[in-house]
């Protein structure tokens, strides 16, 4: 890895551009290496109405980024012999009986942790009032027999036989939390077990996992540091009424990126951070070992809740992401071989939701995470030019492509053509513009070999992988990132 100062410089340069591009109020990011948080930064605002800045102490809702806490809490009980990954969960649920009507076999803890219980996709059974106790909530859900979105019209509560398909389910993870609550030897509520056996030993002093984020359930000082969440549409940043999640073990935790990174480092460190051991080494390894596929993406699989990517590769990584309606998102990643981790939190939920992993609500966090990923892989993540020169240079390459490659024009444009293009340019007052960089790029492109592969090589040389998505979106060019990826052409 490069110097952490290089990463700090890169984030200081790129994060403000991400905020502008995504219309996000603020970003908070922390990076850990080994057993330490080596970088923590905040950008923009935690609260637009008061001007409170986003900083490393700002607390944010994790959304589904909390699911690995719930999984780790259950696996702690597996380590103690209280639960078993492959025995029926109904053995521990009392009068709450969970039966998949499609049959096959009883549901196990492993099925729930790999989203293969057969439960359909649920969005948390939310309300505008705090939820009832977890057991009461789950009894109501399974008695109702339908999912929540649009009153159950989108997905059935039970979609497939047990163990047959990956089907992401908030309710399945809520059942895991209820198992922890019913079986833990301390006899305490789910969130208290997590505090005692994860947050406290790992030094996560700004974290809690309440059934509802209200003063009754949250330690003093945490709600005061929580960011304001914003639902965004083009030209609008809206603070909506607070939403409470019935399936709260699937996503109601509050934390800072620095705290969350400590948890990630512990999992990457085989269950240990410093003197604190929260899982047995073999259990922590199994969490981040592929258990099942997640779909058509061959490099992606599911461990025990964690998403696992490029398993067996030098830079294999695991991670998760989360959203809390309608104002926040979080994304986390850890590289066990490098013992490095990152968490990015953004107080924005873009309502232009396309229903895919590339939906706008995830964009700001992903763009910042790409910068850290490049640093972990040993690249210098700093931009090669300042923003005006960078965007103008790439605009010059684009114009060159339109004048030569795209149309297959055989006659090269001249220096006079370049000068006339620069001289006649009409530039908006707020647009970053460096005419010398623009002209230099046009001359550079003119002198290179022509053809699709040659163009791709030029884009690849000028556009580092971790900046492709950012620049492509800034310049509004569909397919630009793909053109820069030579692997798509071989």
Structure description:
- The strands form five sheets. Strands 3-2-1-17-16-15-14-13-12 form a nine-stranded antiparallel beta sheet, with helices on both faces. A three-stranded mixed beta sheet has the order 7-6-18, with no helix packed on it. Strands 4-9 form a two-stranded antiparallel sheet.
- The radius of gyration is 24 Å and the shape is elongated.
- Strand 6 (230-233) and strand 7 form a beta hairpin.
- The protein has two domains: 50-259 and 269-322 and 350-360, DD-peptidase/beta-lactamase superfamily (Beta-lactamase, 3-Layer(aba) Sandwich), CATH 3.40.710; 387-489, no CATH class.
- It is of the alpha+beta class and 490 residues long.
- The protein has helices at 4-22, 67-79, 109-113, 134-144, 170-183, 190-199, 257-268, 281-287, 363-376, 387-403, 415-423, 435-447, 452-462, 465-475, 480-483, and strands at residues 26-33, 36-47, 52-53, 60-61, 126-127, 230-233, 236-238, 244-245, 254-255, 272-273, 276-277, 292-293, 300-302, 307-309, 317-324, 328-335, 340-346, 348-350.
- Helix 2 (67-79) packs across helix 6 (190-199).
- It has 15 helices and 18 strands.
Outline:
The protein has 490 residues and is an alpha+beta fold. The chain has helices at 4-22, 67-79, 109-113, 134-144, 170-183, 190-199, 257-268, 281-287, 363-376, 387-403, 415-423, 435-447, 452-462, 465-475, 480-483; strands spanning 26-33, 36-47, 52-53, 60-61, 126-127, 230-233, 236-238, 244-245, 254-255, 272-273, 276-277, 292-293, 300-302, 307-309, 317-324, 328-335, 340-346, 348-350.
């Amino acid at each position: 890895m490069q110097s952490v100062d290089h990463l700090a410089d890169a984030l200081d340069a790129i994060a403000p551009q991400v905020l502008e591009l995504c219309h996000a109020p603020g970003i908070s990011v922390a990076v850990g290496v080994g057993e330490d948080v080596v970088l923590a930064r905040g950008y923009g605002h935690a609260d637009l109405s008061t001007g409170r800045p986003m900083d490393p102490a700002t607390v944010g809702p994790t959304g589904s980024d909390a699911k690995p806490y719930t999984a780790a809490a259950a696996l702690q009980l597996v380590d103690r012999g209280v639960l078993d990954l492959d025995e029926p969960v109904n053995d521990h649920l009392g009068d709450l009986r969970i039966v998949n009507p499609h049959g096959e076999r009883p549901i196990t803890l492993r099925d729930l942790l790999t989203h293969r219980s057969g439960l359909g996709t649920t969005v948390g059974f939310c309300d505008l009032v705090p939820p009832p106790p977890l057991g009461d909530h789950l009894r109501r859900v399974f008695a109702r027999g339908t999912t929540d979105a649009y009153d159950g019209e989108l997905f059935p509560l039970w979609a497939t036989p047990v163990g047959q398909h990956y089907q992401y389910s908030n309710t399945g993870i809520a059942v895991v939390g209820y198992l922890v609550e019913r079986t833990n030897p301390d006899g305490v509520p789910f969130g208290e077990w997590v505090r005692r056996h994860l947050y406290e030993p790992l030094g996560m002093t700004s974290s809690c996992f309440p059934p509802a984020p209200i003063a009754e359930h949250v330690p003093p000082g945490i709600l005061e540091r929580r960011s304001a969440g914003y639902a965004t549409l083009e030209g609008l940043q809206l603070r909506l009424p607070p939403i409470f999640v019935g399936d709260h073990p699937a996503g109601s935790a509050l934390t800072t990126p620095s705290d969350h990174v400590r948890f990630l480092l512990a999992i990457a460190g085989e269950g240990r951070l410093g003197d604190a051991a929260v899982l047995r080494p073999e259990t922590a390894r199994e969490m981040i070992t592929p258990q099942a596929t997640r779909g058509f993406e061959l490099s992606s699989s599911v461990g025990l809740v964690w998403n696992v990517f490029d398993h067996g590769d030098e830079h294999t990584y695991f991670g998760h992401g989360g959203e809390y309606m309608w104002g926040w998102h979080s994304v986390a990643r850890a590289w066990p071989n490098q013992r490095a981790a990152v968490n990015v939190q953004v107080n924005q939920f873009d309502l232009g939701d396309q229903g895919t992993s590339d939906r706008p609500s995830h964009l700001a966090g992903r763009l910042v995470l790409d910068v850290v990923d490049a640093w972990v892989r040993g690249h210098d993540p700093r931009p090669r030019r300042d923003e005006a020169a960078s965007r103008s240079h790439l605009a010059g390459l684009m114009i060159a492509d339109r004048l030569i490659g795209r149309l297959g024009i055989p006659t090269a444009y001249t220096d006079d053509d370049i000068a006339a293009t620069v001289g006649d340019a009409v530039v908006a007052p707020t647009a970053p513009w460096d005419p010398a960089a623009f002209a230099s790029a046009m001359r550079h492109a003119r002198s290179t070999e022509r053809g699709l592969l040659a163009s791709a090589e030029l884009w690849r040389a000028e556009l580092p992988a971790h900046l492709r998505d950012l620049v492509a979106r800034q310049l509004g060019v569909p397919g630009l990132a793909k053109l820069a990826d030579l692997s798509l052409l071989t």
